[in-house]
TrEMBL record:
Keyword terms of this UniProt record: Membrane, Transmembrane, Transmembrane helix
Protein name: DUF3105 domain-containing protein
Region (Disordered), start-end ranges: 1-29
TM regions (residue ranges): 32-52
InterPro entries listed in its UniProt record: DUF3105
Organism classification: Bacteria, Bacillati, Actinomycetota, Actinomycetes, Micrococcales
Pfam families: DUF3105
Basic and acidic residues bias locations: 1-15
Length: 217
C-alpha cells in the first residue's frame, strides 16, 4: 500500500475511533440524565427539599466562589455537546462547555491551545495549567508539575492572571508557582469527582505542536 493510501486509511480509522468515543459519551450523558431524574423523583416523594446558594464571583463570568480552595470559582450545568466551529465560553480560560469532538493531547506546550480541544481534555479529567507572562522560574516549576498523566500546560495570552489552573467546572487564578493552592487543586481535580468522563483518552487526537488531528498530513 502506498504511503498516501496508508495515511488516508489511518485518518479514517482515527475518525471512526473518535466517532465511537462520541457515541460512548452520549450514552453516558443519557444514563446520567436518567439517574438524575430518578434521584429527583425520590427526593420529591420523600418530601425533602434542599436549596444551596453561594456568593456570586466577580468578573461577570457566571462563576461562583467556592469554599473548597480559597479563591477558586466553580460552574455547573456546562454544555457537553460536540460541535463544529469555534464555540464561545463565558469564562477565560474556558472551564467547560460545548467543544470539538477531538481532545487536545495532554502534555506541556509553549504555545496557546485552541479552546475547543482543551475543553474536551478537561471533560476527560485533565487539569489545564495556563500562563501569561509568568517568570521563567515559575514556568520551570509548573512544567515539573505538568509532567504527569492527564496534565495539560500551555500559554494563554490575556487570561487576566499570570497562572491559571482549570479543571471541568473549576478554576483557580494565582500569582506565582509557589502558591500552595496549586498542589491542592491538582490533587483534588486531576481525574477528580467533577470529571464527566473519567479515564477517557488524553492522547491520540489533536496535536498542539503540529495543529493537526491524528492521521492528518
Amino acid at each position: 500500500m502506498a504511503r498516501s493510501d496508508r495515511d488516508t486509511a489511518s485518518g479514517r480509522e482515527r475518525l471512526a475511533q473518535m466517532q465511537a468515543e462520541q457515541r460512548r459519551s452520549e450514552k453516558k450523558k443519557r444514563m446520567a440524565l436518567i439517574a438524575g431524574g430518578v434521584a429527583a423523583v425520590v427526593a420529591l416523594g420523600g418530601g425533602v427539599g434542599f436549596l444551596a446558594t453561594r456568593d456570586s464571583g466577580d468578573g461577570g463570568d457566571g462563576g461562583t466562589a467556592s469554599s473548597d480552595i480559597k479563591g477558586m470559582k466553580t460552574w455547573s450545568n456546562l454544555g457537553r455537546d460536540h460541535v463544529e466551529g469555534d464555540p464561545t465560553f463565558p469564562m477565560t480560560p474556558p472551564a467547560g462547555g460545548n467543544h470539538n469532538q477531538a481532545w487536545a493531547n495532554c502534555g506541556v506546550y509553549d504555545k496557546k491551545i485552541p479552546d475547543k480541544y482543551a475543553v474536551h481534555s478537561l471533560e476527560h479529567g485533565a487539569v489545564w495549567i495556563t500562563t501569561d507572562k509568568a517568570s521563567s522560574g515559575d514556568i520551570s516549576k509548573l512544567k515539573k508539575l505538568a509532567g504527569q498523566d492527564y496534565m495539560l500546560m500551555s500559554q494563554y495570552p490575556g487570561q487576566g492572571s499570570k497562572i491559571v489552573l482549570t479543571a471541568w467546572g473549576h478554576q483557580l487564578k494565582v500569582d506565582n508557582a509557589s502558591d500552595p493552592r496549586i498542589k491542592k487543586f491538582i490533587d483534588a481535580y486531576l481525574q477528580g469527582p467533577q470529571t464527566p468522563e473519567p479515564g477517557a483518552a488524553c492522547s491520540g487526537a489533536y496535536d498542539p505542536n503540529t495543529g493537526k488531528l491524528a492521521g492528518q498530513m
